[in-house]
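Hi F.,

I've been meaning to write this up properly since the lab meeting, where we talked about keeping a consistent format for the predictions we share between groups. The idea is simple: the sequence comes first, exactly as it goes in, then the structure tokens exactly as they come out, then a line or two of notes. No screenshots and no reformatting. I'm using this chain as the first example so we have something concrete to point to.
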Amino acid sequence: MTKANVVKAHIGDIPRHNPCAQCGTPIPQPDWIEPGEGRVSYLWTCHACNYRFEAIAIFDEAALEHPPLAA
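Output, unedited:
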């Protein structure tokens, strides 16, 4: 893939209130966001039970075929 095909995370696209994978408590926002080619990884920490986990969003090829119209 070329650099133009890398998906960028925008502030409005950041997931909010993801439930903890262990206790189910909603987490306001991820601690860390790492974009990659065709994916974005999110690191979450639950302050209710101190559980940490990673969630990965994987984008299909159709989403990568159409780069943004403006930079």
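Notes:
The mean pLDDT is 79.
The first strand starts at residue 18 and ends at 19.

If this format works for you, I'll send the rest the same way.

G.
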